[in-house]
Design goal:
about 70% helix; about 140 residues; 6 helices; mainly alpha
Length: about 140
């Protein structure tokens, strides 16, 4: 049931990205162009996502177990460290340059040009390299 819920959630998220045109890199670049032809659409999409996420965390805080079984995930850490800042900066730079981030790039695979699969492969490589780095850091501590 958990996998089905994940699949439906992912499909709903992807559909929302397509309907809001967030799979269009030009839409994202227009949002970031605050001194040019600024397009506030992304701010409304983000605002809606923040409201839904906040409501989800409020509901989750009151629960001791997940709706479909298993432990509740922990709340996000409020700590701001160098790793968070560096990761956010890399994400923002890549997002500004390319106009895509992980969710939209997967949704855009259905109809996008050759750059989207290249971006996806680079993103997956970066995620794998980060997991290897974290594994090495854990081994070094023990």
């Amino acid at each position: 049931m958990r996998n089905l819920t994940s699949l439906v959630s992912g499909l709903l998220f992807g559909l929302g990205l397509i309907i809001s045109d967030m799979v269009n890199p030009e839409r994202v670049r227009a949002f970031l162009d605050i001194f040019g032809a600024w397009d506030p659409t992304l701010a409304f999409v983000m605002g809606g996502a923040i409201v839904v996420s906040a409501l989800g965390w409020i509901i989750a805080r009151r629960r001791s177990a997940a709706l479909f079984g298993g432990a509740m995930p922990p709340a996000p850490s409020p700590e701001i460290d160098g790793e968070l800042i560096a990761g956010s900066a890399l994400f923002g730079i890549g997002w500004g340059m390319i106009g895509l981030c992980p969710g939209p790039v997967i949704a855009a695979l259905a109809f996008a040009p050759w750059q989207v699969p290249v971006f996806l492969l680079a993103m997956l490589l970066g995620m794998w390299l980060n997991s290897q780095r974290q594994t090495l850091m854990i081994r070094a501590r023990t």
